[in-house]
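User: Hey, quick favor. My workstation is busy. Could you predict this chain's structure for me?
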Amino acid sequence: MYILILLIHIVVCIFLIIVVLLQSGKAADLAGAFGGMGSQTTFGPRGSATLLSRATTVSAVLFMLTSLSLSILATRNAGLGTTVLEANPAGGAPVKGAPVQVPGQPMNVTPSGGKTVTIPLPPAQPAPAKK
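Assistant: No problem, here it is.
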């Protein structure tokens, strides 16, 4: 659905660009080049809507609708992905080959050289004296 609306949106965008560029401006005559409108009204004469102006209106409405539809579809699908925490629950299995520390025992580690090294436990901290 999203791809279909996106393709329609792209076609409407291209059509809207072409239709707008084909239209001539309201002051396209020689008097309009110098800022004079003659005896016309303030905003110029309001003629009947031409085929290009109707096509511009229709394509502008379609552009707005497809833009709104694409934004709604994009926000609906935004939160559907899974996170790492959902895929691997808390306290999941350790990584294969990773050393596992057992409390109260020294840890054996085998680096890439192949010789096993024992990491001793840190010395126990004395308990703080009570006052």
